[in-house]
Amino acid sequence: MKKQQSGFTMIELIMVIVILGILAAFALPRFADFGTDAKAAAVQGVGGAVKSAAAIAHAQALVKKETDGSIKLEGETIALKNNYPDAASIIKAAQISDKEFTVVAVAGAPATITAKGVTTAANCQVKYTEAESGAAPTIAVDVSNCK
């Protein structure tokens, strides 16, 4: 009588492992660089927060009839220039933390918000230029090189 054997042979198991190794070698490079995408998404999110904070502060300044004074947003005093937050105050208005981002904000100069750990800071940042008379502030988001 012939005994029937069940299960896999050693060669079949080795071939499955080899095929899985080949698939992993091709799939790994496609999923390995999520850090760059995450930094770019974070900077784009900060750009949206800055745009929203500028619009909210502008709306409140119009309601309160403030032009170059200050307003209060969520307990923070926001200094205004031409009915929009100045460069130093936009960081407080947008509630941006310096734990995740490198922030350079001085009144009168453009504020820059850069993701920490990038190799080229100028190509992974948000730049907020204060409003000129009769115009909105310029908010430029650059995520061309967030490595």
Structural description of this entry:
By secondary structure, this protein is α+β, with helices and mostly antiparallel strands. Helices cover 41% and strands 21% of the residues. The protein is built from 3 helices and 7 strands, in the order H-H-E-E-E-H-E-E-E-E. A hairpin with a 2-residue loop joins strand 1 and strand 2 (76-81). It is elongated. The N and C termini lie far apart (67 Å). The model has no long low-confidence stretch (mean pLDDT 89).
Q: What Rg is obtained from the alpha carbons, in whole angstroms?
A: 26 Å
N-to-C SSE string, H for helix and E for strand: HHEEEHEEEE
| Parts with pLDDT < 50 across at least 5 consecutive residues | none
Number of helices: 3
Largest sheet: 4 strands, antiparallel
Question: How many DSSP-defined strands?
Answer: 7
Q: Percent of residues in beta strands?
A: 15-25%
